[in-house]
Amino acid sequence: MILLRDYEGYNYEEIAEVTELTLSQVKVYIFRGRQKLKEYIGSIEAVL
Fold first, then answer.
1. Which parts of 1-48 fold into alpha helices (H)?
2. In this structure, how many other beta carbons lie within 10 angstroms of the beta carbon of residue 42?
3. Which of 38, 24, 25, 33 is nearest to 2 (CA)?
């Protein structure tokens, strides 16, 4: 979902339609996914 939103440029409604989830579920999954990525990667300075 993060790839669809941030890389491919789909909006939340389009992602909900493609994945057959509700709009609120899509928003929650994207939020939680971004949190996990932030925890895993750490700060952007550590990556660069």
1. 2, 12-19, 23-41, 44-47
2. 9
3. 33
User: Mutual orientation of helices 23-41 and 12-19 as an angle, nearest 10°?
Assistant: 100
SS3 state of residue 20: coil
Kindly report, residue by residue over 8-38, the tens digit of the pLDDT.
999 999 999 999 999 999 999 999 999 998 8
Would you say the pTM of this structure is higher than 0.85?
no
Residue 46 corresponds to which tokens in the numbers above? 């550590």
| Cα(5)–Cα(36) distance, integer angstroms | 16
